[in-house]
Amino acid sequence: MASQVSEAKRAKASAPEYQGALGSLSVNASLPEVLARGVEELQAAEQAGDRREMARCGLAVAEAYRRLGRIEEADRAWKASYRAARSDGHEGAMAWALWSGGTLARQRGAFALAYRLLGLAAEMGERGGDVVVRGYSLAGLAETGRIQGDYEAVGRLHEQLLAEARRRGEARHTVWALEGIAQMHRNTGAYDEALALFEEAAETALRADDRRGWAWALRGIADVVSVRDGQVERALSLLSQAEEACREMRLSSALAYNHKMRGNVLYRAGRYAEARELYARALEEFREMEEPRGTALSRLGLVKARARLGREAARSAAELAELRSILDGIGLRHAREMVDKAAAELGVGPLPDGGGDVPGGGGPVLPASGAQALRAARVEGLR
Length: 383
Hints:
The chain is mainly α. The protein contains 18 helices and no strands. The radius of gyration is 21 Å and the shape is globular. This is Tetratricopeptide repeat protein. It comes from Streptomyces pratisoli.
């Protein structure tokens, strides 16, 4: 294992979405800094009539807006980047803009749109000879399927992308793939495997000076040591370290997920009042950035904490039924199991039918476009 990651460990993480005049920006640059520089350089490119540079700078602007949770501005920015790239006839830049749009769609819970945009980005990246954007787009497809819980469809793709990232010495993508595989192991109860991979991801990110990837890995480690070992203080300490990194870079989404995980750790420890406060905080943060998945999951934690603190069973059951419908509607494969498990844990089941069931019951939730995109994804095409 050590030999496999040695190249990624030696390499410094880069941010290929920062291009052109912004190519010198560090992967750890704070998002307000990226946004300010990006807007300045975008205006200069517009004045010069340089459409390719407009596309490159617009991409960085779009990604800064997205990561800051400024959704509508991010949506306008990636589309403007795409139009500039298209007018210049540059397929690689068009692919990067589509990747940004697809990533934004996933963040907003629009999974069918995410599959379509990321699939187009992968195809265009291949046609344009940009192996990096093709790899990022394939990774985006894999992550979208993983978030939906379709592990069978995306597990192999995660493994292929990990092998490719290691071969190319791409530390940032190595970390991403390790964390994705670790998360699938954690969600299926393989805690030992998950912890080993999260720890490897943290070490790789640290050596590559990738503070974003390091913060996400620490969150994963905290989750596993909390659920597997009951190590509350260690988990909280890890989350505090990760939070510091998130605040330095102004990673709004990562910070909200950190707060939700802190709520999970406190809830498992029976510290329900503290958990309630953290879930409420995360809920407010997710609502502010219009992220439906994080919003629903924070609400689920909040319902559980309130029930433990004496909320009447009927109100808890009604809200759980509503959340089951919402999560089903988003397209999260394990939503029904997650909510029904909470109802059983709290003794408020069986739940009334919320009217939001996915037709066909427990079948796959990938839309046709998503399934086609994943079938078409071939890492061999990265060469």
